[in-house]
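Quick one, tokens below:
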């Protein structure tokens, strides 16, 4: 039930804080991560030498965010691949490969077929899934459920933040098994994770009306670009996907570093570009590079909408709009930066009079290949 909300999507965006806290619930104990579903399965994860994440659409972007954390925390190489590409290229798989599938519905045919394929070839399989008892978790060796609650709107929102949360929990679990992080380091990341729901709630409270107003002004926009670097790159892709599927306008996400290798040719006067700005407190170098991308595009007339942490003044000279997110560690910023993009896509589609719950040509669960 929509319960007073104008759409399921509006309700589900408002539930993003709960999606994270419910996914954490029962899995954190005194600064340690304990995933009851994975009890007794240590052998499955301790000795893997490679992880391949497979998924489609938004779930694949969650996987791309997760890659940065998983590699950093576990020191195991992680590749992320679209499920429908993975299966048709004769991938190298063996008992030391862990294939992690991510799916909200647990029924996406492309992902299911890729999981079966990986299992038949001897790989180990873990499913990250939002739907209890769905086919993909049943076909996998292990499952970590996201507890985002039922997601009805075709566009995935709260499931996305829950998927990143589950991947992070899994990463910390494996880091403990392999000894790649100390208990103190794990506890620091747990503190960050626990703070995420409150920070998302703050964005909804402080920025949502402004973003919706702003989306309203942009209702006639024909094309929007999104730039990000590091963990901000998959968030840029997610922002673009949401705008395509909901508002039916041309939208593209780029790695900011790729600009001068081609996409900067698209920049002309008035072109709206969202830029996800990493915190200057993380890697100062990353921050400087993104600021210089902003300078390059604004010099060519782009209309820059920056998503930046509170207090970051470096964005002010060139940005036409700044959407603020609370301070967080570098790997936790994507869980915050995506929220304004979900609100924006929903706001723009609403301003155009479109049905945000049921966009044209799309199904919630893609059960054909
Ligand atoms: O149920 P799944 O997570 O497997 O679905 C994967 C994609 O079909 C899904 O994320 C799709 O891209 C969404 N409509 C994006 O908002």
């Amino acid at each position: 039930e929509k319960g007073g909300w104008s759409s399921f999507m509006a309700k589900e965006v408002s539930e993003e804080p709960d999606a994270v806290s419910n996914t954490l619930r029962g899995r954190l104990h005194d600064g340690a991560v304990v995933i009851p579903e994975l009890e007794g399965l240590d052998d499955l994860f301790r000795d893997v030498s490679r992880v391949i994440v497979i998924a489609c659409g938004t779930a694949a972007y969650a996987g791309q965010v997760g890659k940065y954390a998983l590699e950093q925390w576990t020191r195991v190489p992680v590749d992320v691949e679209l499920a429908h590409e993975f299966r048709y290229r004769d991938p190298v798989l063996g008992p030391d490969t862990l294939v992690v599938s991510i799916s909200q519905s647990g029924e996406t045919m492309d992902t299911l077929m890729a999981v079966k394929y990986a299992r038949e070839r001897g790989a180990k399989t873990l499913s990250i899934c939002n739907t209890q008892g769905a086919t993909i978790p049943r076909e996998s060796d292990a499952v970590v459920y996201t507890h985002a609650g039922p997601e009805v709107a075709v566009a995935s929102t709260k499931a996305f933040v829950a998927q990143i949360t589950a991947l992070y929990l899994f990463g910390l679990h494996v880091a403990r098994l392999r000894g790649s992080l100390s208990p103190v380091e794990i506890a620091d990341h747990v503190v960050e994770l626990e703070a995420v729901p409150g920070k998302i709630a703050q964005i909804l409270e402080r920025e949502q009306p402004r973003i919706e107003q702003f989306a309203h002004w942009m209702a006639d926009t024909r094309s929007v670009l999104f730039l990000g670097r590091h963990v901000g790159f998959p968030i840029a892709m997610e922002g673009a996907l949401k705008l395509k599927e909901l508002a039916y306008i041309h939208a593209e996400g780029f790695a900011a570093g790729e600009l001068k290798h081609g996409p900067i040719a698209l920049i002309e006067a008035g072109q709206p570009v969202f830029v996800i700005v990493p915190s200057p407190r993380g890697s100062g170098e990353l921050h400087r590079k993104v600021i210089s991308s902003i300078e390059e595009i604004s010099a060519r007339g782009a209309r820059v909408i920056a998503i930046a942490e509170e207090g970051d003044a470096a964005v002010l000279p060139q940005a036409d709009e700044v959407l603020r997110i609370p301070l967080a560690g570098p790997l936790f910023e994507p869980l915050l930066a995506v929220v304004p993009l979900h609100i924006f896509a929903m706001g723009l589609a609403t301003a155009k009079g479109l049905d945000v719950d049921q966009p044209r040509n799309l199904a919630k669960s893609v059960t054909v290949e």
